[in-house]
Every structure is written in C-alpha cells, then in structure tokens.
Amino acid sequence: MSEPAFAVIGLFDSASALLEAIPRLRARTSGRVEAYTPYPVHGIEAALGLRRSPLAGMVMVAGILGAVTALSFQWWMSAVDYPIIVGGKALFSWQAFVPIMFEVTVLFATFTAGLGMLFLLNRLPFFGHPLLSSKAIAAVTRDKFGLAVEADDGLLDVEGAEAALRAAGAALLEVVPVPVYDPRHALKIFPRAALGIAVSCLLAGFVMYWAVKLFPVLPPMVHMENQPKLNPQKASTLFKDGHGMQLPVAGTVARDHMPYLIATQEEAARLVNPLPRTPAVLQMGRKVWNEHCTVCHGPLGTGVPTLTSAYGAKPANLQAQTFREYPDGKIYHVIMVGKNAMPSYAADLTANERWAVVHYVRVLQRAQNARDEDFK
Amino acid sequence: MKDSPTAAGRIVIGMAAVGAVGVASSFVAQPERFWANWLLWFVFVLTIGLGSLFIVALGHLVGARWSVPIRRVPERLAGLVVFAAPMALVALSSLPVLYPWARPEAALHPAIAGKAPWLNVPFFAGRALACFALWILAYRILTGGSVRQDQTKDPAFSVSAKRFAPVFMVIFALSITLVAFDWISSLEPEWYSDIFGVYIFAGTFLAGLAASSLALLYLMDRGRLPGVRADHLYNLGGFMFAFTVFWSYIGFAQYMLMWYADMPEEIFWYKQRIEGPWLNVILLVAVVHFLVPFFALVARDRKGDPRRLRWVAMLVLAAHFLDLYWLILPVVGTSPPLSWPEVSFALCFIGLVLLWVRRSMTIGADMPIGDPLLNEGLEFRL
Q1: What is the pLDDT of residues A82-115, one digit of tens each?
Q2: Greatest CA separation found in chain B?
Q3: What is the count of structural domains for chain A?
Q4: For all residues of chain A together, what is the average pLDDT?
Q5: How far apart are alpha carbons A45 and A22 in whole angstroms?
Q6: Residue A257 falls within a domain, yes or no?
Q7: Which residues have a Cβ under 8 Å from the Cβ of B173 and sit 6 or more positions away?
C-alpha cells in the first residue's frame, strides 16, 4: 500500500458515457461515488442514487414557523400585552396581521433555504476540497466528465477503486492523496472575525456617543414640531390683531362652563358634595389625587411632597385636625380658587373631578384616623 | 369517461337536454335568478376560453419551448370564446334585469347617474361586442394559423405569432379588465375597485391552466400525446401553484384595503358577501382556491404528478366557478341559491361545454406538428 488516498478519479469524454458508467461503477465498489461535471447533467441525481435534499422540508417547517411566530407575536402585542383599539377594529384583527405573517414566513423560509443549504447541507465553511489540487479537475472544468471513488478517512482501497473505474470505462485515472492540511483548518478565522466584529461595534458605539455629545444641537426628527400652528404666547398671522391667543367671542360661554360666584372659603362651607360615595367616584378621586395632588401633598396627604422639597413652599398637611374638620365645600373652594402657594385647579379638573377628589381626601383622612368600628 | 365514447357521449347529451329543460323552466319561473345564473355560466365559460388563449399567446410571446408540444390543447380550448359569444348576445338582451344602471330609475341615483357616460346600454354592448370581435380574431390568428401550419410546415407562422403575441397581450389586458368591470363589477355600479381586473385575470389564467391540464391528461391517457412527460406537466403545475398564490394575494389585498378603510361606498360590497351564509362560500373558496392547491402542489415532485395534477386542476376549476358564484350571485339573494335552477344550469352547460370541447379535440393534429420548435419542446427537461 502506498500513501493514504482521498479519492481515485477517472475521466469520461461525454455526459452520456458518464451516465452509463455510474451504475457499473456503483455495482463494483463500496466506496462513495461522486461525479464532477462542467455543467449540470440531467438525470445524474437518479444515477448517483442521491436522496432528495431535505432542504424543501426544512423550508416548509421554517415557513410555517414564521407564520405562527408572526401571528402569535401580533396577537400577544395587540390583543393581550398592550391592547389599543386602532380605527375601531377588533384587537385581534387577523386581516391586519396577514401582511406581517406573509413577510415573516418569507423571511424565515428564505433564510432557512440560504443558510441551511450553505452551512447545514453543503457543510461550509470548507476551504479547499482535496480534488481541487488534482490534474483531473482542470480537465473537468473544460470538457471532461469526472467520476471519483472517495473516502474521508484515508482508508480507500486504491487498487480496488482503480479496477472498478477501469471496468466502468474510465480513462486517465488519477489518485488524489489525502490532503496534508485539514480543510477545516481555516475555521480558526472565526474567533478572529468575532473579535473584529466586537471591536468594530465598540468603536462604532464610542463614535456615536461622542457624536451625540459633541453635536447636541443636531435636532432629531422634528417634522411634527415644524408644522404651522398657533402658539398661545406667540405672534400669529392668522388673526387680524396678530396674536396667537384670542379672547372668547363676546357674549359666549364655553361648553360645560359653570359660573362660580362664591368668593370666600366661609361662604363655600355651605356647599354639599353632590356625588355619591361609590367605588367609581372614589376611583376617579384617587386618579385625580395621584395625578395632581400627590406631588405636593404626598400620597397620604401629609404634606410631604413626593416631587421635591426644594420648592420652598410648605404644602398643607391634610391629615391635620383643622382639615379633618373642614367641611367638603371649603376643600372644594381651595381646589377651585387656590390658597397661598397652591394655584387654582379650575382649569385642570372638571367639577365632578373636584368633588370626587374631595371624597378621596376624606378616605385618606379616615384611613389614617380610623375609628373603632372600622376594625370590626 | 372510461366507458366507450358513444355511451359517454349519450350520457352527456342527456345531461345537457335535461339541464336545458330546467334552464328554460327557470327562465319562466324565476327570471332574475335565471339571468344571474346565465351571467355566471357565461363568464365561467368565457374565462376558460380566454385563459387558454392567454396561455397560447404567452408561449409565443416568451418563445417557450416546453409549451410547444402541449400548445394544441389550449389552442383548442380557446374556441370556448366562440362558444361564449352567443351567450353574451343573449345576456345583452336583458341587461336591466341584473344591472341597476340599465334601468330608468338609475338617473335618480346620483352616484350611478354620474357614471352614465360609461355605463349605458349602447356603449356597454359596443364594448362587449368589440371585445368578442378582437378575441375571435385573435383565436383565428393563433389557433387557425397554428392548425394551417400542421399542413404547410411553414415557419413563417411561428414568426408572425411571436409578433402578434405582444399586441394580443395589450388587447387581453384591456379586455379582461373590461370583462371584470363591465360584466361583474357593474352589477353593483356604486362599488369600484382598481385591482378587480387583475383579480379576474388571475382567476381566468387559472381556469385556462386547469382546463388545459385536464384536457391534456385526457389526451395523454388515450396515448394521443406521445413524448409529453412529467417535465411538461411540471410547468402547468408550477403555473397553477404560482397563480393560486397570486390570486390569493390580489384577492386579499383588495379585501384588506377596503376592510381597513371601511368606507361605506366600498365596504357594502363585502358586507353583502361576508355576512350571513355567503361567508361560508368565501371561506370554502379560500380553502379550495388557495389552501388545498397550495399544499397539494408545493412539493416539487407533485407539480408534475399526473394523478395529483388531475384532481388539483378539477378543484381549481371548481374553485374558480365558486369564486364567480360568490362574486355574481349575491345580487339576487342574501343566501347562496342552490336548487333546481342551479343544478339545471350546471347539467346543461357542463354537458354543452363537454360536447363542444370533445368536438374541438379534433381540430388539427394533437400536437402542432408543423412548428419548427416541436422537437426542442419534446426534448425539454427540467
């Protein structure tokens, strides 16, 4: 036995000679038979006994997976996690999901087809097939048709393969030695490539960071801000007097406007809260409290601000005896016209919201000063 | 069809005769329903013929080799355009029954009255007749020339057909849009959809492909097309696969935009067709027009498998019919009509079309034996 061989390759003059030789060769050798042709030859898959590529099935599975993924993502986001009604449509509107499902199906399927073919089936990366250094392959790239008996482990029976090829009608036999290098040697390039990508990403991140730091004047997308509009305190060419802000038309009252004629807190004491103490009203009161009152009066109304103490003013402690004994109307009046540093909330809240928050203040006070019967 | 030809022929003639009696009685009993069914069958037969004519012209246009050995089949089926011509004349005689714009009270409806310059009986009839004149002319040029070539073996026809094909494509694109807009869409003249012509084109091409595949397999079973192999069938299956997807794409695109916009002048058309029992029809169409053919033909080997192709072609043809049924019949009923008039129409026209097609299967040789590309076509491999 000579040195270990990877393959023995023989050459044929025509595609038909090759096709005829393949079954004869396959009958005479147990090694792997592979054909090398200058162009695709019809019927060669059947002659070589190649199994149908599993790629089609992989693509089908990936495509279905893509459709299901897109559908469930959209269902989860639109109907479960963040339900927003758009255009009066149902939360789960399959019609709107179909384009995304289609795109994701195609994405999954094409990526599977491309990457699956290259990396799973063709076993790339694989640089330098041993046959590429043979003389026979040069002839195959011109006008000859090659047929080879191959073995990966170097245990090829060279004499047997040569005899089988000769019996099948091949001319110009060539023994291709097992390569001295490992074809997968080049895999070492991958850690380096990964390092390169990581360094590039870091560099790009730093560049981006400094770009943002150094050019803060560059506005982001401001298309909506740059549209023509009326600003309350700005000049405007829309109205004759050149003001953006206008007085109400003479003799008119804004919709839902109720005139408030009470001047003093004492006078307001006679006002009665018109709202019933229902869970819905108390929930509205809590919402108003959390949005408007908590920043200064604190979550429990103790006058400890949640926002900042640097403000200077001292918000009232609504848990104090004075305020617990306040009639509803006096609290309502303060919300309406303001007191000390507290501004009026007449423009921010509706009458119902003001009365609801009065109820809620009572709830907060009762919660901190529970009576005996509350514990039963 | 496995019986002797005479017995099968007698059954078909009997079918057509029984059906004709039912058709005539429905004309007396329920004229509106009669005209709706008449329109349905007219459009169905016409689209099979036009789709076949399109396949023939497409082969000439792109210089396809594979389609040469099977070309005589769609060339013969294209004769159904001639079959449909008298049906169109009959339909033209009673436009006001189905088409609101043809009635006198249309003038009172501002949206319909505004379309009067386009939708009026003389212009409508003129367009329809002009279309038929052009189609029959194209049929005579393409099929007639090809049959003459059988004798003369003159390659000049192949050249002139290739020159005529792009002209036909322009005519076809415009006329198939007119079929869609005039005969179908104007049943509800307030409604409009730009893509509707493309939708009908997709169905037409599919109908031509399905009918051609069936006729081809029929001839192959009788050994009349030696040399036609799975490689040729593969292309028909591939086209059918592609265009069921195309049909779904167009149909869904039209629906999704109208569903999203929800404009009253558009969505009423869909509300009529997806609310109530009609919903079942379109769901069935979605299954037989898209889902089943898609999965039946998606695998490579199945596209050229004669057994698979035969039932898929039957299914696609039925699906195309059901699609037209869903488009046309809602104008006469809020629930899908299916009773003796529909059965009679089916018996009558399936019978007549089968007889017509059987007779047309004797036009010329079974393959275009005078075409210089025939041998190249027979050698076609995937």
Answers
A1: 888 888 899 999 999 999 999 999 999 999 999 9
A2: 64
A3: 3
A4: 87
A5: 11
A6: no
A7: B201
Q: Are residues A312 and A246 in the same domain?
A: no
Q: Which domain holds residue B131?
A: 9-100+119-368
Confidence (pTM): 0.75
On whether the CB atoms of residues A262 and A333 are closer than 8 A, the answer is yes
Q: Following CA atoms B277, B334, B84, B1 in sequence, which dihedral angle do they give, to the nearest 10 degrees?
A: 30
Residue pair A170/A147 in contact (Cβ under 8 Å)? The answer is: yes
Answer for the pair A305, A295: CB distance below 8 angstroms, yes or no.
yes
Question: Average of pLDDT values for A341-365?
Answer: 91
What does the DSSP assignment read for B122-144? HHHHHHHHHHHHHHHHHHIIIII
Cβ neighbours for A364, distance < 8 A, ≥ 6 positions apart = A289, A300, A301, A318, A319
CB-neighbour burial class of residue B65 (10 A; exposed 0-12, middle 13-18, buried 19+): middle
- Within a domain: B193: yes
- Tell me the two tokens of residue B83: 């079959």
Distances (CA, A) of A302 to A288, A293, A316: 17, 11, 7
| Tokens, residue A344 | 């009026």
CB contact under 8 A, B259 and A88: no
Cβ–Cβ below 8 Å for B255 and A95: yes
DSSP A342: B
% residues pLDDT > 70 (chain B): 99
Q: Test B255 with A96 for CB contact under 8 angstroms.
A: no
Least Cα distance to A338 among A296, A368, A279, A305 occurs for: A296
CA-angle at B356, arms to B41 and B330, nearest 5°:
5
CB contact under 8 A, B298 and A60: yes
Which of A226-230, B20-24, B128-132, B160-164 shows the lowest per-residue confidence on average (mean pLDDT)? A226-230
Q: Chain A within 8 Å of B255 (Cβ-Cβ)?
A: yes
- Identify which of B260, B299, B382 has the shortest CB distance to residue A56: B299
> How close, in Å, is residue A359 to chain B by CA atoms?
44
Task: For residues A40 and A17, give the distance between their C-alpha atoms in angstroms, rounded to a whole number.
Answer: 15
A371 touches chain B (CB under 8 A): no
| Cα Rg of chain B, angstroms | 21
The per-residue DSSP string of A170-211 comes to -EEEEEEEPPSS-GGGGGGHHHHHHHHHHHHHHHHHHHHHHH
Type of residue found at B149: Q
Nearest to B313, CA basis, from B32, B21, B146, B73: B73
Q: Mean pLDDT lowest for which of A220-234, A359-373, B94-108, B253-267?
A: A220-234
Residues A114 and A216 in one domain: no
Output the CA–CA distances (angstroms, integers) from residue B183 to A259, B122, B177, in the order listed.
65, 14, 10
Quote the minimal CA–CA distance from B135 to chain A in Å. 37
Residue-range definition of the domain harbouring residue A39? 1-181
Tell which of A42, A55, A95, A101 to mutate to test the B interface (max B CBs under 10 Å). A95
Residues of B in contact with A42 (CB under 8 A): 381-382
For A95, nearest residue in chain B (alpha carbons):
B256
> Taking Cα atoms as reference points, which of B358, B363, B361 lies closest to residue B12?
B358
> Would you state the pLDDT for residue B157?
94
Same domain, A167 and A284: no
- Higher per-residue pLDDT: A353 or A122: A353
Confidence at A119, pLDDT banded by 50, 70, 90: confident
Question: How many separate helices (H) and strands (E) can be counted in chain B?
Answer: 18, 0
Q: How far apart are CA B47 and CA A237, in angstroms?
A: 62
89-128 of A, contacting B, C-beta below 8 A: 89, 95-96, 98-99
Residue B108 located in a structural domain: no
Residue A150 DSSP label: E
pLDDT of residue A266: 87
Helix (H) or strand (E) holding A109: helix A94-115
